[in-house]
Amino acid sequence: MDKQAATNIAVLCGSLGGRPIFSHSCHGRDYYTFPLVVPRLSGTEDSVNIIAEKTVIESAEITENFSVRISGELRSYNNKSGEGNRLKIFLYAFDIKLCDGPFENSIILSGTLCKEPRLRYTPLGREICDMLLAVNRPFGHSDYLPCICWGQLAREASELTVGNEIELCGRIQSRDYIKNLDGIKITKTAYEVSAMELRRA
């Protein structure tokens, strides 16, 4: 595996949360999207947006309610439509296979910190650090991926600075939050990588 491919490796095993629907066409290829639901040990479920080329989906012969194993990359793009979150996060699927094994949610990233880490505390006093990682891919593109870590790892991460290159492994998670827009409360979903291991590259 080349160095570029090793900077962004994600593997998920979960169940389809809905049937694949058409997303867009690019260079004559059709792409479809669907949510993949992956339970945590706590019982909470993460719902990750998947985008895959039509041929990848067809080769797996998947339909709604199937369990699948997906390998790919976590990617981002700037949403300029004015609707929904400004930074869209999704998993780009290289390979989809039917599976009946245990649920899985793992990701390995290496990239560059492009925003100062922010150490904060939960209402219960637990330390958490927010980071934004720029991960390069071919042809001059970069994905900007929100990451978090907890406890001692959060304290260590808070000492990093913009421009530091880091490697981390963890899981992709989704979380709902309430945003107040002109007095109207709207439920939104944020996506981030929860790091379990982190080191300077």
Description:
By secondary structure, the chain is mainly beta. It folds into 2 domains: 105 residues, Nucleic acid-binding proteins (OB fold (Dihydrolipoamide Acetyltransferase, E2P)); 92 residues, OB fold (Dihydrolipoamide Acetyltransferase, E2P) (Beta Barrel), CATH 2.40.50. The chain is 9% helix and 64% strand. The protein contains 3 helices and 12 strands. Strands 1, 2, 3, 4, 5, 6, 7, 8, 9, 10, 11 and 12 form a 12-stranded mixed β-sheet that branches. The longest helix is centred in the first third of the chain and has 7 residues.
The protein's oligomeric status is: single chain
Taking all Cα atoms into account, the compactness measure Rg is: 17 Å
CATH superfamily of the largest domain: Nucleic acid-binding proteins
The major sheet is characterized as: 12 strands, mixed
Percentage beta strand: over 45%
- How many structural units, i.e. domains? 2
What spatial form do the alpha-carbon principal axes imply? globular
Structural class assignment: mainly beta
Number of strands: 12
Q: Per CATH, what is the topology of the largest domain? A: OB fold (Dihydrolipoamide Acetyltransferase, E2P)
The CATH C-level name of the largest domain is Mainly Beta
Low-confidence segments, given as residue ranges, are: 1-6
How does the SSE layout of this entry go?
Layout (H helix, E strand, L loop, with lengths): L2 H4 L1 E9 L4 E6 L2 E11 L5 E9 H7 L6 E12 L8 E12 L5 E10 L4 E4 L5 E11 L3 E10 H7 L7 E17 L2 E17 L1
Parallel strand pairs: 4-6, 10-12
Antiparallel strand pairs: 1-3, 1-5, 1-7, 2-3, 3-4, 5-6, 7-9, 7-11, 8-9, 9-10, 11-12
